[in-house]
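The material for today's practical consists of a large collection of protein records. Backbone structure tokens are a discrete shorthand for how the chain folds in space. An example says more than a description, so a record of this kind follows:
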Amino acid sequence: MNKKSIEILDNRFFIFVMLIFLTACSPTEEVEIAAPITNEPEEMETPPVEEVEEVAPKLITWENWYLSVPIDRGNGKATSIKYQDIVADKLTAEEAKYFYKNEDGTYTMWTKFTGFTTSGLSQLGDKYCRTELREYWRGNQDTNDNWSMSTGIHILESTMQVDFVEGNGRTIVSQIHGKESPGISGNPATVKIRWNSGMIQIDHYTKPNVGDPWTSKYDNKVDFGRVDNELFTFKIKIEEGKLFCALVCEAKELDIPYTEIFDYVGNGYIHENYFKTGNYFGWHDDYEKAAQVVLHKVVTEHR
């Protein structure tokens, strides 16, 4: 073979080898490309939320009070209702006319002159009737459970609203009442907080003449703030033997801080005492006219 023929064979052989190589390297199957792996977060179960039962705020500590209503207890005196009957809602139908719980937890205190007072049967023009709470400061349910102005700090805060007061427009909504004790005579109504036709009035006894008892003969009246028929809180405090008073009525934009009214211990006052609050109606001219107060909250503190 000549040289040219050999070159042609060499080229053909090269082409043949290349075809075999390309055929072997060409894909004969489709290769499936896997999708990228993603780490999806697992669904977490939300634990159930426990429902917390709402507890209504305590409006008054009943163990520290008893209630008086102007119903004959059988001897001409007003009826006393113990706190257990109030809490258990066991008032009679007649008692419930004077004192009952409202749907919002407040208490309505209605009263009129019936003649049955805390000191006995009274005729028209004599004494006054009340639907009123009397304090037992330690909760002992005993009328000897009283406190002294000479020691400690004693506070009463009554939140209430006067619906109406017929007649002369006067009812007493809070008190500090004195109590006779061994060696000390007399039961003075030492401090009276009066709703007087919408004006809150402090009526307090001042120092009597030598030998005289503490009585209304020596009282002094202070107009403290007008609340009309709006919700208000009146505060009484005895500290270092002195009387301080404060008044809050948002509707009237009143926020009168504690103000010193009288120094009792400094003026020789030695009676033991208790708080009262409610509706002590200042009317005794007939058996028809009435007064109504709604009690929202009562707080006492002794320390």
Observations:
- The chain is about 10% helix and 40% strand.
- Helices lie at 3-25, 83-87, 95-98.
